[in-house]
Design brief:
Length: about 270
């Protein structure tokens, strides 16, 4: 039988196992712990299955200051805000890194550096408090022209490949949809679609707001209108980037496990 590696975790030498565990729980937020010995000579903290062990060895700990471990995180911005609130020693602020991730660095009471990293973050302007009076959210399907323009603006469509006939076919099975319109000009500045079997299942698709109109509560207004069109006792799902989780959670969506597969035409066909 082929061996399978199921988990790797660091073991850090520390001056005090008990004080270190207390710090990691109160400041870094790791909820679970275990300790061995009286006084403790070994122990660990854990969070969602990720564990860091600590071993009592003051002399070795003194020479290990400055070493680092990396922790991959979902909802990185939320954890960063938590660490700021708890007064963690943040030595490098949260930012997008050139290697395609976001991250920040904290230092614990032993002098170890912990690099928390995750999906790149989107820098957004703070949303205004209310929807502009001239924006109307209409219960209708966007035209292929409107949809194509919005999709190109947010980078979800290729001007050369995504033709209007293809978009029209994609819009045909839509059950419910909304379009945000600038009442002064008649321009569609956003849309959101709902697909499903009308009985047990709906899928929220293509929630888009033109970049020139983001931060004006348009996405929120469209989602509120779209969700109101759904009957009770029906499952509603969506696929989104991690950075938008907080936006959808305000409509009672929760993270769950899922899988996805793309079937593509091979390059030689």
């Amino acid at each position: 039988m082929t061996p399978t590696i199921v988990h790797v975790e660091p073991v850090l030498t520390v001056h005090s196992v008990e004080e270190t565990i207390k710090y990691w729980q109160e400041v870094f937020g790791f909820p679970d712990k275990w300790m061995w010995g009286d006084p403790p000579t070994h122990g660990a903290v854990s969070w969602h299955g990720a564990q860091v062990q600590f071993s009592h060895d003051p002399s070795l700990a003194a020479t290990s200051r400055g070493n680092a471990i990396f922790v991959r995180v979902r909802q990185l911005e939320t954890l960063y805000d938590f660490h700021k609130e708890k007064g963690a020693d943040i030595v490098a602020p949260l930012e997008n890194k050139p290697w395609g991730m976001a991250g920040y660095t904290v230092r614990d009471l032993n002098g170890y550096y912990i690099d928390f990293g995750g999906q790149t973050i989107t820098i957004r302007q703070k949303s205004q408090s209310s929807l502009p009076s001239y924006i109307q959210v209409l219960k209708r399907t966007p035209t292929p022209e409107e949809f194509r323009r919005l999709a190109i603006s947010v980078g979800w469509a290729d001007p050369e490949r995504d033709r209007l006939d293809k978009i029209a076919a994609m819009l045909d099975p839509v059950i419910h949809s909304v379009v945000a319109v600038n009442g002064d000009t008649g321009e569609a500045v956003g849309c959101a679609l709902l697909l499903g079997d009308k009985v047990t299942f709906y899928y929220v698709k293509d929630v888009m707001v033109h970049p020139d109109w983001q931060g004006k509560r348009i996405g929120t207004a469209m989602m509120k209108t779209l969700i109101d069109l759904v009957d009770d006792d029906i499952m509603v799902t969506l696929i989104s980037g991690e950075d938008l989780a907080s936006f959808y959670q305000q409509f009672d969506f929760i993270p769950t496990f899922g899988m996805i597969r793309f079937k593509r035409i091979s390059d030689d066909k």
